[in-house]
Design goal:
The structure is a single chain. By secondary structure, this protein is α/β, with parallel strands linked by helices. The protein has 2 domains: 40-201, Ribonuclease Inhibitor (Leucine-rich repeat, LRR (right-handed beta-alpha superhelix)), CATH 3.80.10; 205-342, Alpha-Beta Horseshoe (Leucine-rich repeat, LRR (right-handed beta-alpha superhelix)). The protein has helices at residues 2-32, 103-106, 304-314; strands spanning 47-53, 56-61, 68-74, 80-82, 86-89, 92-99, 117-119, 126-128, 146-148, 157-159, 171-173, 179-180, 194-196, 203-206, 209-212, 217-221, 227-229, 236-237, 250-253, 259-260, 273-276, 284-285, 298-301, 327-331, 334-340. A hairpin with a 4-residue loop joins strand 15 (209-212) and strand 16 (217-221). It is elongated.
């Protein structure tokens, strides 16, 4: 009888803990949702109807009465492309809220070769063009120099976006924008020409860096220095932050850094020295961080524990991109490991 009661008591405790964990996961999930997609089925399989107006292709769900349209392709060949806030089709007016350009599925947008000025409507909530980062030069904005977004824009997410725009000179971050990826490798874009609108609680500028408001995420770097010191308190370096920064010879990573995301140092062809200040474990380097960098990069670490962890990461098999080659890991000036991936 005693054992049975003990079992029931333990069972209650376990069920209670499971309930607490589930509630926490639900909270985390809700916090990670930046905006409500309940009014439209975003999965491409749900888009059954397409129509084209003024050289812009739109898509919307066939069985859903919601009057929200998604930009599917841009066929414009003019130098100025304006996406409207609403569009009419078959007697209905659709609000343009989303853009999901995918050149692999829907064809390469013709405006990539000709567009110099792009006007984005205030109604746009999510811009995800799947263009930035592609190796194929077709998937780039060739001449784009100006992107017009008003301060009161409803834009919350801008993914991929305008990476590798050689002529882009300025950019406005509206007050509602939370996710910004895709301003990397824009050589004419300087931090002084990045405007963060009053009321935006998600970004701030520090030196040549664009950071999250709490200073824990590094979103962009707009400098051209030879020696770069990543600000203290940074926990995450986002995708492609230093991509194609050929001026960089040396970079210092702060002690608390946890994650360096995809292609962070890609094409930094002159990078030769990486200083890691962590004392317990190396930051996690995502696939492709050092793609197309020079041979023989030297990594300076604090102790043997970090050295072992870093070596394991550098030697990890990569399926989609090249590894750093002939790397060295040093403590002070003493070589601990050399010819890594030699």
């Amino acid at each position: 009888m005693y054992n049975e009661l003990k079992f029931l008591k333990v069972k209650k405790i376990v069920l209670f803990l499971i309930t607490i964990i589930c509630l926490n996961l639900t909270t985390i999930s809700s916090e990670a949702t930046y905006f409500d997609y309940s009014d439209i089925a975003l999965q491409w399989d749900y888009y059954q109807n397409n129509f084209t107006v003024n050289e812009i292709s739109y898509a919307y769900p066939l069985k859903n009465p919601i009057t929200t349209a998604t930009v599917a392709n841009l066929y414009n060949k003019s130098s100025v492309v304006t996406i409207p806030s609403t569009v009419d089709n078959d007697g209905k007016t659709y609000t343009v809220k989303y853009l999901t350009l995918n050149p692999m599925e829907n064809g390469v947008p013709l405006c990539l070769k000709t567009c110099e000025i792009l006007n984005i409507p205030d109604t746009m909530v999510c811009w995800d063009d799947n263009l930035g980062g592609e190796d194929d030069a077709w998937f780039k904005w060739k001449k784009l120099s100006e992107v017009n977004i008003s301060e009161n824009s409803q834009l919350v997410e801008l993914s991929s976006g305008f990476a590798d725009c050689k002529y882009l000179k300025s950019f406005t971050i509206p007050k509602n924008l939370k996710i910004l990826e895709g301003l990397t490798n824009c050589p004419k874009l300087k931090i002084k020409n990045i405007k963060i609108c009053k009321g935006n609680k998600y970004f701030k500028k520090k030196g040549q860096f664009l950071l999250s408001s709490k200073g824990r995420k590094l979103n962009n770097y707009f400098g051209d220095g030879k020696s770069v010191k990543v600000p203290n308190n940074i926990k995450v370096i986002k995708n492609q932050v230093f991509k194609n920064k050929t001026s960089i010879r040396k970079i210092t990573l702060p002690k608390g850094l946890k994650t360096v995301e995809y292609w962070a140092f890609r094409d930094c062809k002159n990078l030769s020295k990486v200083i890691i200040k962590n004392t317990k474990m190396s930051p996690k380097f995502y696939d492709g961080c050092f793609k197309n960098t020079k041979n023989g990069i030297e990594f300076y670490v604090k102790n043997i524990k970090v050295a072992k962890n870093l070596k394991k990461q550098l030697m990890k098999r990569r399926f989609f991109s090249s590894k750093v080659k002939n790397a060295k890991i040093l403590i002070d000036k003493k070589v601990i490991y050399q010819n890594i991936n030699g």
